[in-house]
Design brief:
Elements: H1 3-6, H2 33-45, H3 60-72, E1 76-80, H4 83-93, E2 101-105, H5 111-118, E3 122-126, H6 136-142, E4 147-150, H7 162-172, E5 175-179, E6 187-188, E7 191-192, E8 199-203, E9 216-220, H8 223-232, H9 237-240, H10 258-268, H11 271-296, E10 299-300, E11 313-317, H12 321-334, E12 338-340, H13 356-359, H14 370-373, H15 386-394, E13 395-399, H16 406-421
Parallel strand pairs: 2-3, 2-4, 4-5, 5-8
Antiparallel strand pairs: 1-9, 6-7, 8-9, 10-11, 11-13, 12-13
Length: 424
């Protein structure tokens, strides 16, 4: 490498990344003729509602539910309007309600905790381990007589340590709802995520691996959970699905539209290709920096099942937050889209300490809210999960798009090796 190219860009050298990197919208950037034709078919039929329309025909949403369940290895699937709706409906399906404690990880989008509040439950926040997913040992420490469920979140595409999570859950008689919003199609020991616990919740928001702009799905192998979920997500869900009148409970409206269903059918058929491309790109990039990482004492994020990782990102740890920020800043100057996952100066709803409405136990009505109904005082504090904050503060994150070219990867590798080899 020449003198001019080896000098760090942050010190006046030439940036390593010269070709534009694709934005991180995996399924969104793969939208093409298949989605267009699927949407046009629905529009031409004028049948936008899954149950009926001016012309007869099969429902795209019903077809999606069938194909999604089969893809994920589940018996049942219920399509809904968003990932948040999926979490809420799944919690209702599992029988979680007022005063029930549900353990959630300290690192997850706020919706994981907000959904618990929405059904009257109380979020209990647990530490993450070096995988940046929930720590099974800390789950056990947080269990009380009021604990009813655990929400392991497969954060940034990586599977939680599900064998250990399920062992804790079964030991204490707890339900498990897998939040698979960021890990559509990923797996753990050969099983698709979302199919291991009592229910799984998925998101199809635009940033997710497959997308229809907004949308979600609940899967389960338990017919009773499916019945409760399908009744809750649709005011006529019970009658439409053959549930006896004497069993029907009141529901709301989280129904997916036929347009969303059409787009998602096309996207679902692209899922395995997206995962294969991201896994290949991550493996190529990681291999180019393993030598310098080992030499500099840089530790990659722990993976409970490397083969099952969705591979949407590459994460590694620096010895301390100061050096992590130096490295991230230098990588940004090289054109590598890197950042540190926790900066105390910047609010981020992925980190528990910034869940202000929950941390301050705010409620919509002075007489309502789960903390008012709870049998004991619930305490939240910014330093509740110091291990998670330490890990996030030292974690450098790089997106892995399925659309990275070999040229992109070579240039990113050049930038990473320049920066990681420098003195910091």
């Amino acid at each position: 490498m020449s003198q001019s190219t080896s000098k760090l860009a942050i010190e006046g050298g030439t940036p390593a990344v010269r070709s534009p990197l694709p934005p991180m919208y995996p399924g969104g950037l793969r939208i093409g003729q298949e989605e267009e034709e699927a949407v046009l078919e629905v529009l031409r039929s004028k049948r936008l509602f899954r149950y009926y329309g001016p012309t007869p025909g099969p429902s795209k949403v019903a077809q999606l539910e069938k194909e999604f369940a089969a893809c994920m290895g589940a018996s049942y699937a219920v399509a809904v309007t968003s990932g948040s709706a999926a979490l809420i409906c799944a919690l209702v399906g599992l029988g979680i309600g007022p005063g029930d404690e549900v353990i959630v990880p300290a690192y997850t989008w706020i919706a994981s905790a907000s959904a618990v509040v929405a059904v009257g439950g109380v979020p209990v926040i647990a530490e993450c381990d070096e995988s940046l997913t929930i720590d099974p040992a800390d789950i056990e420490r947080r269990i009380t007589p009021r604990t009813k469920a655990i929400i392991p979140v497969h954060m940034r595409g990586a599977p939680c340590e599900m064998d250990a999570v399920m062992a804790v859950a079964r030991k204490h008689g707890l339900k498990v709802l897998e939040d698979t919003a960021q890990a559509d199609g990923a797996s753990y020991h050969g099983k698709r995520l979302g199919s291991i616990g009592d229910a799984g919740a998925f998101s199809f928001q635009f940033n997710k691996i497959i997308t229809c702009g907004e949308g979600g799905m609940v899967i389960t192998n338990d017919r009773e959970v499916w019945k409760r979920t399908v009744m809750y997500h649709d005011v006529i869900g019970g009658a439409r699905n053959g549930i006896p009148e004497e069993e029907i409970l009141p529901g709301v409206n989280f129904r997916m539209t036929e347009l969303q269903g059409a787009v998602m059918l096309a996207q679902l058929r692209k899922l395995d290709g997206l995962l294969a491309d991201m896994r290949r790109n991550k493996a190529m990039l990681k291999a180019t920096i393993e030598e310098v990482a080992a030499r500099k004492g840089i530790v990659f994020r722990k993976e409970h099942d490397p083969a099952g990782d969705a591979a949407i990102c590459l994460i590694f740890y620096l010895p301390d937050a100061a050096r992590a920020n130096m490295v991230a800043e230098a990588l940004q100057a090289e054109g590598v889209g890197a950042w540190v996952l926790y900066d105390p100066e910047h609010s981020d709803y992925h980190i528990y300490r910034y869940w202000t409405p929950i941390m301050q136990q705010r409620t919509w009505h002075p007489k309502g809210g789960p903390w008012r109904w709870h049998e004991s005082r619930v305490h939240y504090a910014p330093d509740l999960c110091p291990r998670t904050l330490d890990l996030l503060g030292r974690a450098v994150h790089i997106d892995i798009s399925p659309d990275l070219t070999n040229e992109n990867i070579e240039e990113m590798a050049e930038g990473l090796n320049k920066v990681l080899s420098a003195e910091w």
